[in-house]
């Protein structure tokens, strides 16, 4: 029979082995586990007809995770201008800064002849943030909690990435086309833009109603990048020309409603490519509309003040 000391030693060794195994596997168990990338969706009339009844019962509700939009915002009715702010899940602090500055539901009045003759020269502005998924549950859940407080987030069921931005924007734009409210102008802005709301309201108010507006920071003579390792790579199959048409840079551009609808119709025919702002210009060119350089009149890109 082994002595008590030998048995005690064996038990001690066994305990040490178990502790080492525990210490080895615990970090892996505690680490956040990435979720499978949410399924992306094609922009089709059928999909959005199916979802429309859910959206319009309430301007905001949490819908099933496997639908196109997993969070939708509250929006005022009878908007003249709708600001769509592109952001990513991690940028909570930046969103809060924008909420305290220019990203607000607001009304502006201008005492002059305007494109809103029945509104008493008042422009009503609404906004929301568009986001995708991050991939880590704790971050994506924090976005859901944030949306419960502010009710100003539209989350698209795809993973946020630069190459996927075009799908995120097209899906968001399609959601906007299905709203009951039909804003006269749709503005897309990145979260590193400061929009001068009074100047924007003034400029839009004096814009003739019939004018088809595509405006922003205009880039001209931009060569198409064919280097496959570049994030701005576009294949010849997707776009065969050597140069893009003049386009408004992605951080900020404006569509009038009478152009926006035609652009969205064209997007169902012309295959998207990953350079979102240039792709929008390809759609606009089909309408025979030239971009207007609004420049720093209505916004400033932070970092180039």
Summarize the structure.
By secondary structure, this protein is of the alpha/beta class. The chain contains eight helices and eleven strands. Helix 7 crosses helix 8.
Would you kindly provide a written description of the structure presented here, covering whatever features stand out?
The protein has 305 residues and is an alpha/beta fold. 35% of the residues lie in helices and 20% in strands. α7 crosses α8. The longest helix is centred in the first third of the chain and has 27 residues. It is elongated and about 100 Å long. The termini are far apart.
Key phrases:
305 residues, alpha/beta, single chain, two-stranded antiparallel sheet
Mean pLDDT, as a whole number?
81
Q: Which series of helices and strands comes N to C?
A: HHEEHEEHEHEEHEEHHEE
Q: List the uncertain runs.
A: 25-66
Q: What structural class results from the helix and strand content?
A: alpha/beta
State the separation between the terminal residues, measured CA to CA.
Answer: 85 Å
């Amino acid at each position: 029979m082994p002595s008590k000391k030998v048995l005690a030693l064996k038990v001690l060794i066994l305990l040490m082995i178990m502790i080492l195994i525990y210490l080895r596997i615990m970090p892996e168990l505690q680490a956040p586990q990435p979720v499978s990338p949410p399924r992306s969706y094609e922009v089709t009339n059928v999909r959005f007809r199916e979802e429309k009844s859910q959206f319009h019962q309430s301007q905001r509700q949490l819908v099933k995770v496997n639908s196109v939009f997993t969070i939708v915002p509250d929006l005022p009715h009878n908007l003249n201008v709708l600001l769509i702010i592109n952001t990513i899940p991690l940028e909570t602090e930046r969103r809060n800064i924008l909420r305290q500055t220019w990203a607000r539901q607001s009304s502006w009045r201008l005492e002059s002849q305007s494109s809103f003759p029945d509104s008493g020269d008042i422009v009503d502005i609404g906004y929301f943030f568009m986001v995708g998924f991050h991939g880590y549950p704790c971050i994506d859940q924090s976005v859901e909690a944030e949306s419960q407080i502010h009710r100003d987030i539209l989350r698209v069921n795809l993973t946020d990435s630069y190459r996927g931005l075009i799908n995120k924007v097209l899906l968001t734009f399609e959601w906007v086309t299905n709203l009951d409210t039909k804003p006269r102008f749709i503005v897309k802005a990145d979260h590193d833009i400061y929009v001068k709301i009074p100047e924007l309201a003034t400029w839009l108010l004096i814009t003739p109603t019939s004018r088809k507006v595509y405006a922003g920071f205009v880039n001209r003579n931009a060569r198409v990048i064919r280097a496959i390792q570049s994030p701005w790579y576009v294949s010849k199959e997707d776009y065969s020309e050597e140069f893009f048409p003049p386009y408004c840079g992605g951080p900020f551009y404006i569509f009038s409603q009478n152009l926006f609808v035609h652009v969205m119709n064209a997007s169902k025919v012309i295959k998207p490519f990953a350079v979102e702002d240039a792709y929008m210009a390809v759609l606009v060119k089909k309408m025979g509309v030239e971009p207007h350089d609004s420049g720093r009149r209505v916004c400033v890109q932070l970092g180039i003040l």
